[in-house]
Specification:
- The structure is a single chain.
- This protein has 730 residues and is an alpha+beta fold.
- The protein has 19 helices and 25 strands.
- Helix content is 35%, strand content 23%.
- Helix 5 runs antiparallel to helix 7, helix 13 packs antiparallel against helix 14 and helix 18 runs antiparallel to helix 19.
Length: 730
């Protein structure tokens, strides 16, 4: 429409379907004849033409986005297609095909490639553009009103001229006046004609828009079906590799195609949703190996262990979690192809009854490690405890596949634990992008722990990756030391099909800004066969990069320290044994499995001379029915009359949607979640109209005093309990 209004000529050409027989090259089976179809920018191949007519038994497909064709001058039938993912597919036109030449196929492929490339390179619409966009119904009503006004103006001009000509007074009027009236009338008539032409063009344009919308809907359908098929095939291949049985694809080509074309993999989406929904069954309790050392004699969550004069905390939620068997994440994500992942609204059934601010508070579950670090005089021992605390901060995420509620702008959360010796305040300081700031301090003024987290999400097809942007700072006040680090990347696998599972990977660099000591921890990705599943390894180095200590363990279980020479010798011997066990099977190192791997052993092999730094506390017996919460997480949303009278009205314990879900009222939780999101959207729109900026209450933006990175700093005064002029966000 913009091109139309500025006078550019716009040609809308319907994309034609093109099909016919082609020989296709295969790495293992040579050349084989297929019926190939070009439709909506997608190249698909079938065994027979009737299969293409019924759209069944499709053997494969490729989207032609940025596809490039190459030919050989010496062979008039051969051509190849290089796709956007650098895969090359060879085709040959049958010599007995008189009606279809290579040139016609190349012309059709170029046309469909241009179509697919154009629509895959369109810019995403921003929130502001979405709010300013005109709906088709509004445009239709506007056209009707314009047509009515044009007809009325035409009538009024006609009646005006008729009245002047019939009036006797017109004879006595000056000729110049009558001439001017005729000029105005003629100009008005020309305006009516121009307006009528414009309305005709806009009406015609609306028809073109509707046609393009139908094309986009069809393309979306093809994309989602292709991704579903690819994910199912990939999942079956991974399972066969992990279990040790040969993949069906290497048995025979016919058996392979029959397997993919059967009712189990070629059926409707309902079949896929049933498989995906099964992945949400959380019947397996977390494994605990050996004896778990408790947090220096303290139970990190209350219950009977905290009955010695300290407030007892609850040991379960008011209602167990709902079954997710009838729901599928893929059924939601397939409708959101092309959208920014952070803006996808998920049904409440995929949530857990905690806000992300409360999820952040789980960093403090093993606060005893900070107290222990403060008690040591040796900086290396302090770094060991800080490293153990950094690893323990992500331990509660294991098997927690429920999504925490997104905090509303201005939402807060506080937690005071006298038994663990800390208090914490957090605030949602930004909504786009979503940034959560927190500040914790020891009740004995021995430490300060603060930071801000911006979880950057990426959707990789079969997995969702969350990279926690932001700096975390720990200050040990008694030693005048500050440590900074960032958390590892978290990834949830098997979003489409298979059992959901979580891994953490990436390097975590902990820096002591006073001594220059550094601890570099490597959270290892699991790899194809799961040998490195959950493993964490690293070294503590001084400022001259001399290794002072080695650390190893699993972030789901424990962390040990050992002499670096002993650790290096063990690693060298372990690598040698691994190479000897390798068989003739070779797998590509560029592709890793999404299937949940089985580790070599359930516990960490303890190297002689090692010292235990941290071991996770066992989860409660009812954890599987309570969203896989730890004992610490179980009490985060607990509230009583005394607490309710003290906390501010922005505290997420008072959020009605989280409270309803915790109480088992899933329908009410869904309604409240929708109401709060609409209220927040309306408030943001009002601020935009009034050009008013949001002002945070308890944090302000500024540089981190130790590494200079942009951060959110606690402003103070929260614990004075003067909560006036707080926003009404619930």
């Amino acid at each position: 429409m913009k091109h139309l209004l500025v006078g550019n000529k716009v040609i809308y050409k319907a994309l034609r379907r093109y099909e016919g027989p082609l020989w296709k090259s295969s790495r293992f089976f040579g050349w084989k004849l297929f019926w190939v179809v070009l439709e909506h920018g997608v190249l698909s191949w079938y065994r027979k033409q009737p299969d293409a007519v019924r759209n069944t038994y499709r053997q494969g497909c490729k989207h032609l986005t940025q596809a490039v064709c190459t030919v050989k001058p010496t062979d008039s039938c051969l051509f190849s297609i290089r796709c956007f993912d650098d895969t090359v597919h060879g085709f040959r036109v049958p010599k007995n095909s008189l009606q279809q030449s290579r040139e016609k196929w190349l012309e059709a492929i170029e046309e469909h490639s241009a179509y697919s490339t154009h629509y895959c390179s369109q810019d995403q619409v921003t929130d502001e553009e979405e709010e300013d966009a005109v709906s088709p119904m509004d445009l239709k009503e506007s056209l009707k009103r314009a047509q009515t006004c044009q007809q009325r103006l035409d009538r009024e001009i006609y009646n005006f001229l008729k009245m002047i000509k019939e009036c006797d007074v017109a004879k006595d009027m000056l000729p110049s006046f009558l001439q001017k009236a005729e000029v105005v009338s003629e100009a008005s008539r020309e305006t009516c004609v121009a307006l009528s032409d414009c309305l005709h063009l806009l009406t015609k344009q609306e028809g073109v828009r509707n046609f393009k919308l139908e094309q986009e809907q069809e393309k979306n359908k093809i994309l989602s079906e292709a991704l579903e098929t690819l994910a199912t095939e990939h999942h079956e291949l991974e399972r066969s590799l992990v279990e040790g049985s040969p993949p069906v694809s290497i048995l025979s080509e016919d058996e392979f195609y029959d397997a993919l074309s059967g009712s189990e993999s070629e059926g409707s989406l309902t079949c896929l949703e049933a498989v995906t929904a099964h992945s949400f069954e959380e019947s397996k309790a977390p494994v605990s190996s050996g004896k778990h050392r408790m947090s220096e004699g303290k139970d990190c969550g209350g219950g009977d262990a905290l009955s010695n004069g300290i407030k007892k905390h609850r040991t379960s939620l008011p209602s167990p979690m709902f079954s997710r068997n009838d729901f599928s994440i893929w059924s939601i994500l397939r409708k959101c192809i092309g959208m920014e992942l952070s803006k996808i609204t998920m049904p409440v059934i995929f949530n857990e009854p905690l806000s992300f601010l409360q999820r952040l508070t789980e960093y403090m579950e093993h606060t005893y490690l900070i107290h222990k670090a403060s008690s040591f005089s040796d900086p290396v021992e302090r770094m060991q405890c800080v490293a153990a605390f950094a690893v323990s901060a992500v331990a509660s995420q294991w098997e927690r596949t429920g999504k925490p509620f997104n905090p509303l702008l201005g939402e807060t959360y506080e937690l005071v634990r006298d038994d663990l010796g800390f208090r914490l305040i957090s605030e949602q300081v930004s909504h786009h992008p979503p940034i959560s700031a927190f500040h914790a301090e020891g009740l004995n003024n021995d430490f300060i722990f603060h930071g801000s987290i911006y979880p950057k999400l990426k959707f990789w097809g079969k997995s969702v990756e969350a990279e926690p942007k932001g700096t975390i700072t720990l200050e040990l006040l008694e030693h005048n030391e500050a440590y900074t680090w960032t958390n590892p990347t978290c990834c949830v696998h098997n979003i489409i099909v298979g059992k959901l599972w979580i891994e953490q990977y990436g390097n975590v660099e902990i820096i002591n800004h006073k001594t220059g000591d550094k601890c570099v921890l490597n959270f290892k990705p699991c790899g194809l066969f799961g040998k490195e599943l959950h493993k964490v390894e690293g070294y503590i180095q001084d400022k001259s990069k001399k290794k002072l200590c080695a650390l190893y363990g699993k972030w789901t279980e424990c962390l040990y320290s050992v002499d670096p020479a002993t650790f290096d010798a063990y690693k060298k011997n372990d690598k040698k044994n691994t190479e000897e066990k390798k068989n003739s099977k070779q797998t590509s190192s560029s592709e890793e499995s999404d299937e949940m791997p089985v580790p070599d052993s359930e516990s960490v092999f303890i190297i002689p001379g090692s010292v235990l730094l941290w071991r996770i506390a066992p989860r409660p017996p009812n954890s599987a029915q309570m969203y896989n919460f730890t004992s610490f997480a179980m009490v985060l949303n607990e509230v009583d009359k005394e607490m309710e009278s003290v906390i501010p009205k922005t505290d997420c314990r008072l959020r009605p949607d989280i409270r309803a879900m915790e109480n088992g009222e899933i329908d009410q939780a869904s309604e409240e979640k929708k109401r709060l999101e609409e209220k927040q959207r309306a408030a943001r729109k009002n601020r935009s109209k009034s050009e008013e900026d949001w002002k945070t209450r308890w944090f302000h933006q500024g540089p981190n005093p130790y590494n200079g990175a942009q951060d959110w700093i606690y402003s103070g005064s929260y614990w004075d309990r003067n909560y006036f002029n707080l926003p009404d966000i619930y």
